[in-house]
Amino acid sequence: MSFEAIIIGGNFAGLSAAMQLVRARRRVLLVDAGAPRNRFSEASHGFLGQDGQTPAAIMREGKRQLSLYPTITIREGKVVRAQSDGDAFTIGTEDGGEERAARIVLATGVSDTLPEIPGLKERWGRSALHCPYCHGFEVGGGKLGVLANHPHSAHSAMMIPDWGETTFFTQALFEPDEEQLVKLTARDVRIERSPIVELLGDNLKLEAVRLADGRVVPLDAVFVAPKTTMASPVAQQLGCAFDDGPFGPIIRIADNKETTVRGVFAAGDAVSAMHSATLASASGVLAGVHCHQSLVMQSVA
């Protein structure tokens, strides 16, 4: 085999996994489809040493640094097929290419599905946001909204007042229970039960939201947790098991980041309900380290 490990996905998790393996002098192929989840964000925040950089710039520099190691091969392309092949794995790319390796690291990420509200999709990653720890500081001090689209939305609304004046829009779907109402009141969160039907503002800047009853409420940013699906079918093709996360399925992994398929490791947003650049990178490091250790153990078995 030309490669000992194939990493599918070239965002924070995949690049971090690759770095550990090439520093262990293993032959690694990294295949990147070039459509990272964070491509809609203007900057990555909260990532130590990279705060304020664009995600594209971070990944570009990561690939540059990886390319300095002699055992890495980086290819642009989409993996559309993966299967077990005896004691190894075979992957197939959209352009008809095929490669084989003893180990696979899945860093394939997730795709977001947003509520069907006019003006929301085009503001995603700018003034329609998923994570206050990633983007809250930049909209801090403004009028902020939390759009309820899952059972944990009330908990999210309790966090947001640290960044600004907060309104919780129940969307007539997720009414807070008595305990949640007490806590939201203690946090000075306003409850709005008329659903948001449109986001308003020029040049993708959010200025207000229109409600179903016709009122227009000024807002500078709205937080919403999208529903997620696997961005790639390869985990399912390989036979990996999934768990039900709060926003969508996640790949089941052990403490060593190995999936239920021996020899297949996974990292990043596809394995966790908590999503950030730092967490994705950290899980990629662990996946790379444990992937290397499994190769060592196989050689001495």
UniProtKB/TrEMBL annotation:
Listed InterPro entries: FAD/NAD-bd_sf, FAD/NAD-binding_dom, Ferredoxin-NADP_redctase_2
GO terms assigned for molecular function: oxidoreductase activity
Pfam families: Pyr_redox_2
SUPFAM superfamilies: FAD/NAD(P)-binding domain
Limits of the FAD/NAD(P)-binding domain: 5-129
Keywords, ordered alphabetically: Flavoprotein, Oxidoreductase
Domain of life the protein comes from: Bacteria
Name used for this protein in its record: Thioredoxin reductase
Organism listed in the record: Rhizobium sophorae
